[in-house]
């Protein structure tokens, strides 16, 4: 019963529409998939419709961008009430700030002679899409400056790049509180993925746990075996469950659906803890 609780669609920086992500999940033989776009619920309706047709159970979620003293933290939030205003306000604010920040990065790059314009980057994203560096990468691929998102992230788009600009994001402890207030279940995404940039100390995760964090995404391709072990041990010490997920982005990343999975027991805990009235979409199987 493969369960994959972390995927992205064109509502954020995935390359496939949310109904296509669900179709790919069916093809990959998953029984349960969660859609967790960055800072938006926009992909939910089409995913719900597709899940019913294709016979894959769907967990509605979101990956909340957070920032702890300048260190990026990603918080997965499952089964949240999309109308809960506290969380919604923070997502709106982060999405708005992402637009300004992408414009600023593109200005800096263009001023240095890199072939990219704001219009070209916008053209890579749909209406209402959460903008991110991957959309700049796609424009750079289109202009022939790089061959892939990966190549762009290895160079001009990396965290330490001279073109890097940060964006507004809530503190992770506050975000945990807001997810719980929205009736959802907060799980910290790839907590020790040091290859992506700085990660927070265990003390921050302890404070998130005190605020209501439910789990750690221990099994993720951006973790080394030692980082997975550390996540599993820290989760046990703090009374958190662990998940495993692909962080699928369609053609935008090598991550394959189902490459890491979560146990049915942990999914049952997520369902038990949710108080939003947003249920797992369960479908009859052929
Ligand atoms: P941003 O949220 O705009 O700061 O951009 C970070 C996003 O870029 C993450 O959510 C990743 O999905 C994506 N990303 C990071 N590194 C890479 C990479 N090497 N190739 C493709 N996508 C990446
Ligand atoms: Fe992403
Ligand atoms: Fe993430
Ligand atoms: Zn993600």
Distance between the termini: 15 Å
The major sheet is characterized as:
7 strands, mixed
**What would you call the structural class?**
alpha/beta
Shape type: globular
**Helix tally?**
10
Mean pLDDT: 97
Q: Would you identify the CATH architecture of the domain at 3-84 and 185-273?
A: Alpha-Beta Barrel
Rg over alpha carbons: 18 Å
Q: Which range best describes the helical content: under 10%, 10-25%, 25-40%, 40-55%, 55-70% or over 70%?
A: 25-40%
Total strands: 7
Strand content: 5-15%
CATH class of the domain at 3-84 and 185-273: Alpha Beta
CATH superfamily heading of the domain at 3-84 and 185-273: Metal-dependent hydrolases
What is the ordering of alpha helices and beta strands? EHEHEEHHHHHEHEHEH
Give structural notes.
The protein is of the alpha/beta class and 286 residues long. It has a domain at 3-84 and 185-273: TIM Barrel, CATH 3.20.20.140. Helices cover 40% and strands 14% of the residues. The protein has ten helices and seven strands. It has helices spanning 18-27, 44-54, 85-111, 118-123, 133-142, 149-154, 172-181, 202-211, 225-238, 264-273, and strands at 3-4, 32-35, 57-68, 71-78, 185-188, 215-219, 241-244. It has a seven-stranded mixed beta sheet with strand order 1-2-3-4-5-6-7. Helix 8 links the parallel strand 5 (185-188) and strand 6 (215-219). The longest helix has 27 residues, at 85-111. The protein is globular, with a radius of gyration of 18 Å. The two termini are 15 Å apart. The structure holds adenosine monophosphate, fe (iii) ion (2 copies) and zinc ion. Adenosine monophosphate is lined by residues 13, 38, 132-134, 149-150, 153, 249, 252-253.
